[in-house]
Design a protein that fits this description.
Order of helices and strands: EEHHEEEEH
Strand content: 15-25%
Number of strands: 6
Distance between the termini: 29 Å
Radius of gyration: 15 Å
Length: about 150
């Protein structure tokens, strides 16, 4: 069975966990060992070049980045490019992990139970910080960001 997850983006930590600004659905390999190596390098590079404040634009490009990776898994599969990811308007009942990405660069990983109502008091499994070091960056180009997976 697939390990489903949501990747949620929040403009501020004052937003309720159940009310993200952007919500991406991932159908499989949603466990931290599958998701974090794909999103953290992207978020670090994005933050270095552009910052994390424009959550909607970040969400769109993150989805593009993730679907590009997904499409490389099986290019000969006719369903490649059709399944795997989606944009959600509400949390699915069967997710096992939630990745909460905040505009200040914090990423919180939550393990969830099926049909669990997300509570703001829920404790994260892991908390990561996107390194903010734009002053030392010589690369001011977004070219290749979604293609390379870096």
């Amino acid at each position: 069975m697939s390990t489903r997850c949501h990747i949620a983006l929040y403009k501020s930590k004052q937003q309720r966990l159940s009310k993200p600004s952007v919500l991406i659905y991932r159908h499989s390999d949603g466990y931290p060992e599958g998701v974090l190596p794909e999103i953290m390098p992207f978020l670090k590079k994005w933050d270095k070049i552009r910052g994390m404040s424009d959550i909607e634009y970040l969400g769109a490009r993150l989805l593009q980045h993730l679907t590009n990776i997904y499409d490389q898994w099986s290019p000969s599969d006719p369903s490649s490019g059709i399944l795997g990811y989606g944009i959600s308007w509400a949390f699915h009942w069967d997710i096992e992990y939630l990745y909460a990405i905040y505009s200040d660069g914090e990423v919180r990983v939550y393990e969830t139970e099926w049909e669990e109502k997300l509570d703001d008091k829920k404790k994260p499994l892991k908390v990561l910080q996107v390194k903010r070091d734009r002053q030392n960056s010589n690369d001011h180009s977004l070219q290749g960001l979604a293609k390379t997976g870096s």
